[in-house]
Amino acid sequence: QHLIDRGVIRYGAGNWTLPERTMEADLPASMDLLFRERVNRLHPASRALAQTQALATFEHFTADDYAQIASELPPHITHGLVAELIANDIVKGDGQGYVLGHAAMRKALVSSIEDAEGRAHHRKLAALYAAKDSSRLAAVRHLLAASAPGPALALLSEVLNMSSESRELAASSGLAYADIAQLLAQAHDAAILIGLKPRAVN
To answer: What phi and psi values does residue 89 have, to the nearest 5 degrees?
Structure first.
């Protein structure tokens, strides 16, 4: 794919044209560089969609998830953005569910995110997960990452009122115990910073 993108291998009149010799300069210096170049070539809206998925708590996205993340766009535009991601091997899917194609692709996407962009992506993920009863703890995680401790702690209080024990949190949230422990530690620090009294969880 890299050689096609660079025009080293060409297709025309029903035939592929290959070079007699491949120069070293035609090859990517590293796989990381290859993935970064692929991310940079994306349409900005497609790149933003993929960046948001790269930050998501749960890697699996549905068509409805994409539609909510890009709710400001008409459905046919969002469909086209997802098609571009598939065509460029950014995500893999079957029309029902989509995941990022490679761990290195996730790394390239995350490294391409500016701080302000990251906060915006996390806010969208928080809204996505807050609308799902099974993912509200993930919404708390993303609100904290979006530098919104007040809403994050308010939502966490609601979740804790419904699930007072850690095993209930794990069962209802889909998160591992280690992830829940890390999230609660982050919430504890956020509560102290804004002057709230932390709450104990059994």
So the answer is: 60, 30
Contact 125, 59 (CB under 8 A): no
Measure the CA–CA gap between 71 and 116, rounded to whole angstroms: 19
Q: pLDDT tens across 77-119, in order? A: 999 999 999 999 999 998 789 999 888 899 999 999 999 999 9
Model pTM score? 0.80
Condensed to tens digits (0 to 9), the pLDDT of residues 169-187 reads 777 778 888 998 899 999 9
Is the separation of the CB atoms in 113 and 42 below 8 Å? no
- Three-state secondary structure of the chain: CHHHHCCCCEEECCEEECCCCCCHHHCCCCHHHHHHHHHHCCCHHHHHHHHHHHHCCCCCEEHHHHHHHCCCCCHHHHHHHHHHHHHCCCEEECCCEEEECCHHHHHHHHHCCCHHHHHHHHHHHHHHHHCCHHHHHHHHHHHHHCCCHHHHHHHHHHHHHHCCCHHHHHHHHCCCHHHHHHHHHHHHHHHHHCCCCCCCCC
What integer best gives the mean pLDDT of the chain? 83
CA distances in angstroms from 112 to 6, 38, 54, 78, 107, listed in the order given: 21, 11, 11, 21, 9
Strand pairing partners for 97? Answer: 62
Token pair in block for residue 145: 């990452």
